[in-house]
Amino acid sequence: MENKQIKYSSITKEKDLDVLIEEIGDARVVMLGEASHGTSEYYTWRTAISRRLIQEKGFNFVAVEGDWPECYAVNRFVKGYVNSGSKIADVLQVYRRWPTWMWANWEVAALVEWLRDFNNLRQVHEKAGFYGLDVYSLWESLEQILRFLEQNDGQAAEAARNAINCFEPFNRDPQTYAQATAFVPTDCENEVIEMLQRVQRHPPFTGDAEHDFNTKQNALVAVNAEKYYRAMIRGGASSWNVRDRHMMETLDRLLELHGPESKAIVWEHNTHIGDASATDMADDGMVNIGQLAREKYGIHQVKLVGFGTYQGSVIAGKSWGAPMQKMDVPPAMPGSWEAMLHELSTDDKIILSKDLQDIPELKKRIGHRAIGVVYDPKYERYGNYVPTVIPARYDAFIYFDETEAVHPLHMKPRGTKEPELYPWNY
Q1: Which CDD domains match (predicted)?
Q2: Domain 3-134+263-421: which CATH class?
Q3: Which helix (DSSP H) or strand (DSSP E) does residue 265 occupy?
Q4: pLDDT at 170 over 70
Q5: Closest CA to 379 of 387, 371, 391
Q6: Which helix (H) or strand (E) is 399 found in, with range?
Q7: Which of 146, 147, 248, 320 is the most buried (most CB within 10 A)?
């Protein structure tokens, strides 16, 4: 291919984002991806983009690929709630589940600091929020619901206790629970659904709409987490779809909470925000939040921005639950999207998909690198490239020729036995 056909804008400073901000236009949802969960530049530039969207276009919140309870604690901090903490590093200690480095890092601390400063002099309804979209926090959400309901609704609290008691024999271990439901015709689905229904039927618990939303969201997380862990033991695409549909449902609920004119920024891996229908994920019946958002809100209301690199370093683990380590990211495979951009120039750059429409070679799938929390550079070529029609998957792409690892806060993760249940680690 004649690489000179690819138009791009170099990116070295925040002002260079003008071309992307213009492309975003009046979109309601902007999703910012990453090709790994451990690369500094992805976090730093997503922060720069998010700042501009919040300041210049009135975006209301950042929603990330993190668990609801932990991210809601950060949300309370950035909005200045009473007893929400005083030091950023202390607040980020809530991220105790492996991989802790995803959100407990200095790059996220910079975003949190900026959000807190931005919100400091603003009225409650003007403050920018920070929320988690993910579905893993079954036990944490159940415990938060119970603590709240014990003070506000005895009957609903009893339903929450019943749900917790049902899960008690599985020792907070999703793998044990999932395996048990595979071989014994019993599960805790009815208990969590009953709890959710009681919470949803209840009139507002307090005068704080966000606080009530938090309770209902934790109940929804418990229902979908139970469904997710049950689906994982069966294998296939079903658990992936449960997770991404939950993330889409949460995004939709957040937009509704913030009103009809609200706008959302989403931070997730490229495998979630890049439209799955433009990849081989579609061959396996998988969908993702980027695709679902386009379908629900319309392609002009949703802007999907992918990120990638040619080489550098990354934080990851050799297996699920393994100690985090800094690893080399080798030069991208020949013929891949990243190698193509490297051959074009070594500039860091922004590429708009509308400028790729007339390039025949990009109308078919090409390899596009994806690094998860579990990674081994030696075996990258065997599982870290997603066949992708680039201009159909994203509205824009930000490329860095060489990147460095994110800077973790080095917290010890809470023990977990979850690895065998995770066929994907994005």
Answers
A1: Ere-like (cd14728)
A2: alpha beta
A3: strand 264-267
A4: yes
A5: 371
A6: strand 396-403
A7: 248
